[in-house]
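Exercise: predict the fold of this chain.
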Amino acid sequence: MNVIESSGHNIHFESELAPLAQIIEEGNYSKVFIFVDRNTSEFCLPLLQGMLDDYTNFDLIETDPGEENKNIDFCIGIWKTLLDFEADRKCLMINLGGGVITDMGGFIASTYKRGIDFINIPTTLLAQVDASVGGKTGIDIDNVKNMVGTFALPQAVFIETSFLKTLPERELLSGFAEMIKHGLIVDAAYYERLKVADYKNIAPIEVHRSVEIKNEVVTEDPQEKGRRKILNFGHTIGHAVESYALINDKSPLTHGEAIAVGMVAEAYLSSTNNTLTPEELEDITKYILSIYPAYHIKKESFTDLLGFMQSDKKNEHGQIMFSLLSKIGACDYNCIVTEKDILAALSYYNNQAK
């Protein structure tokens, strides 16, 4: 469709990977590695090879899928694999997969021998509209999300919505949560468009708008010192719920399902601690709960959830920091919220999700 210019690299949208061969040729790389998990190896790698006219001059590095594997132990295994392949500082890593692959692959590349080039080809809706844009890499420590990572820019990002056809419905819904967030924090008209969209058949133009919104915000504040923090709306509570469910639930939540919980709870905080109106709160709550499955937050988990929030990397001076809506389409950051209000927000979600 076009090229979105980002900080120091381009995001190629619907290019069928045409510029990729040129980037590889101009980089004069000693080796090219493609980093995948078992799912993307089976379902997405053939699409990639088809777009590259069966270009096969690469080595494949495969890992297990899932957030539970986004940790230092798996990174050590992949660093050792790169050493076994005699990878030098002039090699290239292509991260083909969802947010776990782009987060972890970017981290591995940005730290191996103090940094090698990498390219992100996100294959899930979540990775396309969120994880692959903005130069953040990271892994989890003790189930606390993205506690170790770097700011490292890829050589390029390629977004091909044809990869979305490989996804189950639940994964599409997961990525859709980040698109809703983009509308809520920046673009009210976009939020209204999404409310009548079909997340199972999301239009490329809507994916493009989400990428555009995130890119605009991170380009303005690449190191997350100020406005970029608005992208955390729904994530302070959402990440805590996601981490808790990963440890305690038989069927852990997807990232988007947890962020949906977080957006409802933090919309409530936006009405009690910022200027979101009761009508806007009701609109957000009803819409999100109409498409995302209800999740019961056990009262006995509240203390653990607060513990996860207190470990959040966005906190300052021991205070839990939130990004809260001032209205639909606008968001403030560095909002301090009391534990009493946070517990009230968790209870609000439970009461609405019954």
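Check your answer against the key: The chain is about 50% helix and 15% strand.
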